[in-house]
Design a protein that fits this description.
The complex is a heterodimer of chains A (456) and B (439). By secondary structure, chain A is of the alpha/beta class. Chain A has helices at residues 3-51, 58-72, 76-79, 87-91, 118-130, 144-152, 154-163, 189-199, 213-224, 234-241, 248-273, 280-310, 326-349, 373-377, 383-405, 433-455; strands spanning 106-109, 113-116, 136-142, 175-179, 206-211, 354-359, 410-412. Chain A folds into 3 domains: 3-55; 61-99 and 243-311, no CATH class; 108-233 and 321-455, Rossmann fold (3-Layer(aba) Sandwich). A 5-stranded parallel β-sheet of chain A has the order 4-3-5-6-7, sandwiched between helices. The longest helix of chain A is centred in the N-terminal third of the chain and has 49 residues, at 3-51. Chain B has 15 helices and 7 strands. Chain B has helices at residues 14-42, 49-63, 95-108, 111-115, 125-133, 135-143, 167-177, 191-202, 212-219, 226-251, 258-288, 304-329, 351-356, 361-383, 411-431, and strands at 84-87, 91-94, 117-123, 153-157, 184-189, 332-337, 388-390. In chain B, strands 4-3-5-6-7 form a 5-stranded parallel β-sheet, sandwiched between helices. The longest helix of chain B is centred in the middle third of the chain and has 31 residues, at 258-288. Chain B is elongated and about 130 Å long. Classes of the chains: A alpha/beta (456), B alpha/beta (439).
């Protein structure tokens, strides 16, 4: 090889090396540019977030991604069963996600429609205690307000009963107040619950039923939901009695829901693995995408809920066909309420148990209470619930008075707050603790009258 | 080296090659199609495109109905009215009864109801069959009494298969809540109370709950059983896959070709078999019974003696509750202990009755051990002034075959029972201090 050729080759090598260095430089320049741009964008994103009043919080972002992963990767039973109670999972300690239609303790009951599973153990304890020779056992039946009363008003009730000179339980004997009331129970559920409790061996000395509002309000909402007014709350019964997996259309929506939830979980998992929360830019983009995916999953859940609520339209599970007007539904509800009260009294009388039936107060019953500013500020209730209070309550009072004439111990507590100006209501029908203590006074008076009459 | 004057071989143009390939392919396909058709014809299964299309359609239509239904689908019964559905207060009821309830309410709001004498017959299947086959005989007996000589007496069959206390009490209370007031209530029960409670206990269900065989199947929540739910969803995904495949066969006209449809149908059949295998897995899981603790009811003492005590208590308490409801409403009430085959001494059994009376052990033992306890407990009812009639020995001297299974008897037996109930019923009417008809 000649020197000239060698020189030429050296030149080529030098040129190639320069070319490689140039390419590397260009690449470094591009990468540096990208990095600089990313840095600028990152800084920009952080400034923007700060200016928007929500400085970037990497820990919060990571928490949101982790929460999404945990929630959406939850097992199929909770993820895909909107409104279906899942006590099996709950008993293992997992937090069930039941989409808010019914809570995890709710289950079908053959004689009550639905029941809170925790009531089973409470009833066992009540039966055992009621059979002991000492003590005075009071059983409270009804809906939400009655259940609240046991928590907030029973102590005052016990005090007042014990303070009465002729109280059969004695001044110092234990007064045990047992709750057989369940949220959203309405007649004939209270009467059936009493019949079941008595059949199971409960031996109370006094039974108090506190009800009225749910009896008329749920009857109207049931009719609106295509369910017979006498049936349990459609919002719970139709969910529990309908079978979400028995219908292919529902099952298809279930599959779609599961697919979309899996996408959310997979995305959150990837984002967490890449630590996107360390960057305001990448993190906010990831959270945006996460929200989008979650919205898609929520939409699928809403579709499933809607399908689930409607697929049994017209089925026998909704009860006999009811084609009447609002007035007819109210008449049916008031008839069932009166019959339930009368039957409960009959069941108690045949067993020598004292009985008092209490018509609970409710905010929108005209004249029930001068509403305070806080009560006026409560969100306006559903028009059906307003109708229930305004149209149903006069009918309930009249029916209660009729039953009282037939000898049933009736306590019309619908005016117990008629002169109370302070805030007592927490919503259209639920009252605060002070309200329950006031209610306890009315109930105690009526119960003591009944106990005294029986003693004679 | 090629001679210089020889022209290079001419290559066929590309389009010609393509035509040749496509033509050969088409011919090959035609030959294959023809061959397939000939083969099928030779085998005696000549290709029928329309039949193939229908086959594919049938695959779609049958497949989508094959998700096993937890709630017995109404389509599976011959009479939709007989299909059993969940009832919020009775546990389970027939769809027809629920639908007819609106008519019953209308009748009881009518003037006719105030004129007529309406008897409700409560209980289980024996009560329902008695209403159909023995109630008229009872009414004939009642007509012999001057109080009923000119009355229109109607009976309402409220007995339901496997009902037992507290179901009868709740049925009556629900009727009253609907504004339905009968003139009299005839409660005919006993067997289910001691037989079904025992069976429930052996199946892990609270004895006082409705019969486990019906209740658990409907009230257990498949969505709470992850394995089952996963199985159902996998099955459904497979079914959708088969459906899409079948739809492609239809959309692309594959069904018109013997050759293509042979392959497509084979693939479709494989996919369908796979789906059906999943179907079977889900069915097996359902059949195993995922006894949901929520559906099985409260904890209970599984000792069979304790179960028997609780069932007898529930029978007494149920009777007392019905008596109390009736008393306050001025309704005449008669409680009757039904006869049953496995109650020793209830009847001289014929060979046919022995043969057909064999039943599940829980039922036989329930009747054998429970009936003496029910008879003993009935003293509590009489002490409280409740009209009670022990019909458990009503066939004690009957030599003919009456029973056709372990607890149900034929029309002759029901007529005998109807005649036997005449006097106790009239006595109960006499004992009612404030009958509705007087109010």
């Amino acid at each position: 090889m000649s020197a000239e050729t060698e020189h030429t080759n050296a030149e080529h090598r030098q040129t190639a090396a320069i070319g490689r260095r140039g390419a590397l430089f260009k690449l470094a320049l591009v990468l540096g540019g990208i990095a600089a741009l990313a840095f600028v964008l990152e800084i920009g994103a952080r400034i923007r977030a700060r200016l928007a009043g929500a400085p970037w919080d990497a820990a919060a972002a990571r928490r949101e991604l982790t929460h999404a992963l945990e929630s959406f990767a939850a097992d199929a039973a909770t993820e895909t069963a909107p409104g279906v109670a899942d006590s099996a999972l709950d008993s293992k300690g997992a937090a069930p996600d039941t989409a808010g239609l019914v809570d995890a303790h709710q289950a079908l009951h053959p004689y009550l429609g639905f029941d809170d599973l925790r009531m089973h153990e409470r009833l066992r304890a009540a039966i055992e205690a009621s059979r002991s020779p000492d003590g005075f056992d009071v059983l409270v039946e009804g809906g939400t307000v009655a259940a609240d009363f046991v928590g907030a008003g029973s102590e005052r009730l016990s005090e007042l009963l014990r303070a009465a000179p002729d109280f059969p339980g004695g001044a110092n004997g234990p007064v045990r107040v047992w709750c057989e009331a369940r949220a959203e129970f309405k007649q004939p559920q209270q009467a059936n619950a009493l019949a079941c409790a008595l059949a199971a061996g409960l031996e109370p000395e006094l039974v108090i039923t506190i009800d009225g509002f749910d009896d008329v309000a749920i009857a109207l909402s049931n009719v609106a939901a295509g369910t017979h007014p006498l049936y349990p709350s459609a919002a719970r019964w139709n969910v529990l009695a309908g079978n979400p997996t028995g219908d292919v259309r529902t099952l298809d929506r279930l599959i779609e829901l599961r697919r979309r939830r899996a996408r959310v979980a997979a995305f959150a998992e990837r984002a967490l693995a890449r630590h996107v929360e360390l960057s305001a830019l990448a993190g906010s983009l990831a959270l945006g995408k996460l929200h989008e995916l979650r919205a898609e999953a929520d939409a699928a859940l809403a579709e499933l809920d809607a399908a689930f609520k409607t697929f049994r339209e017209g089925s026998a599970e909704r009860g006999p066909k009811f084609t009447g007007s609002t007035d007819d539904a109210l008449r049916c509800a008031v008839e069932a309420w009166g019959e339930g009260a009368f039957s409960m009294w009959s069941l108690c009388r045949a067993r020598g148990i004292a009985y008092v039936h209490v018509l609970q107060p409710t905010l929108h019953d005209d004249g029930a209470k001068p509403a305070s500013e806080d009560e006026l500020a409560l969100a306006a209730p559903d028009p059906l619930r307003l109708d229930a209070a305004r149209l149903g309550y006069p009918a309930l009072r009249a029916r209660g008075a009729e039953l009282a004439l037939r000898g049933m111990p009736f306590c019309d507590a619908s005016r117990v707050f008629a002169d109370v100006r302070e805030t007592r209501y927490r919503d259209a029908s639920r009252i605060d603790d002070a309200g329950h203590r006031l209610l306890a006074e009315s109930i105690a008076r009526r119960a003591l009258e009944e106990l005294a009459a029986r003693a004679k | 080296m090629a001679p210089p004057d020889q022209a290079p071989p001419r290559r066929a143009p590309l389009w010609k090659k393509l035509v040749l390939v496509v033509g050969s392919l088409a011919i090959a396909l035609l030959l294959a199609e023809g061959g397939t058709r000939a083969l099928l014809a030779f085998r005696g299964k000549a290709f029928d495109a329309e039949a193939t299309r229908l086959d594919v359609l049938n695959t779609i239509s049958t497949l989508n109905d094959n998700v096993p239904r937890w709630n017995a689908p109404r389509e599976e019964t011959n009479d939709p009215k007989q299909a059993e559905v969940l009832h919020p207060y009775f546990g389970i009821d027939a769809a027809g009864y629920i639908e007819d309830m609106a008519n019953v309410v209308t009748y009881f709001q009518s003037e006719a109801a105030t004129r007529n004498y309406d008897i409700a017959i409560l209980g289980g299947s024996v009560a329902a069959i008695f209403a159909a086959e023995g109630a008229e005989t009872l009414i004939e007996e009642l007509r012999k009494d001057p109080r009923f000589a000119k009355s229109i007496v109607r009976y309402w069959s409220l007995g339901r298969g496997a009902y037992k206390q507290p179901q009868q009490t709740i049925v009556l209370h629900t009727m009253l809540s609907l504004g339905i007031e009968f003139d009299a209530v005839l409660l005919l029960d006993g067997f289910n109370e001691v037989a079904i409670t025992r069976q429930n206990a052996t199946m892990g269900e609270f004895p006082l709950y409705p019969t486990a065989t019906k209740w658990l199947a409907r009230a257990s929540n498949p969505a709470a059983d992850r394995e089952l739910l996963d199985g159902m969803m996998t099955l459904r995904a497979r079914q959708l896959g088969v459906t899409r495949q079948a739809q492609r066969i239809l959309d692309l006209g594959i069904w018109r070709s013997a050759l293509a449809s042979t392959f497509a149908l084979k693939s479709l059949t494989r996919a369908r078999s796979d789906a059906m295998a999943h179907f079977q897995r889900v069915s097996d899981r359902l059949a195993k019974g995922t006894v949901s603790p929520t559906a099985a009811g409260p904890r209970f003492d599984p000792d069979l003696a304790a179960v028997m005590r609780s069932s007898v208590t529930a029978w007494v308490m149920g009777s007392r509750s019905i008596a109390a409801l009736c008393r306050e409403h001025g309704i005449t009430f008669l409680h009757v202990l039904q006869p049953t085959l496995h109650d020793a001494g209830s009847k001289p059994l014929t060979p046919q009755e022995i043969e057909k009376g064999a039943s599940i052990p829980a039922w036989e033992e329930g009747a054998r051990l429970g009936y003496p306890e029910l008879r003993a407990a009935s003293a509590q009812l009489l002490e409280r002034g409740i009209s009670f009639y022990d019909a458990s020995r009503v066939f004690a001297d009957v030599e003919e075959t009456l029973y056709y299974d372990s607890c149900h008897f034929n029309a002759l037996g029901n007529q005998m029972l109807g005649r036997a109930l005449g006097k106790p019923f009239l006595d109960a009417v006499t004992a009612n201090p404030h009958p509705r008809s007087d109010r």
